[in-house]
Amino acid sequence: MNLKILKVFIQLIVLFPELFSRFSKYFIYFVDGIKNIYKENMTYIACCFFKNQTEWTVTNT
After folding, report:
1. Which pLDDT tens digit goes with each residue over 2-39?
2. Which of 20, 34, 54, 55 is exposed most, by the fewest CB atoms within 10 A?
């Protein structure tokens, strides 16, 4: 994933946390689906919505 796009996405979540809290569970389901599709040697980024929803986890599988 392009780092510039990721930075913009993180900024949007920081600016509009209430918007992403509404769709957080669906986003996590989406990331799980991507992980299942691209299991072998792919890097995916999972967003974990804790506290103020600005903590991120980068997972390599």
Report:
1. 678 778 877 776 777 676 666 666 777 777 776 666 65
2. 55
pTM (predicted TM-score): 0.28
CA separation (Å) from 59 to 9, 18, 22, 41, 56?
17, 25, 23, 11, 10
Tell me the helix, strand and coil percentages in the chain, rounded to 5. Answer: 55, 15, 30
Cα separation, 43 vs 25, whole angstroms: 20
CA atoms of 34 and 46, how far apart (whole Å): 10
Residue 41: helix, strand or coil by DSSP?
coil
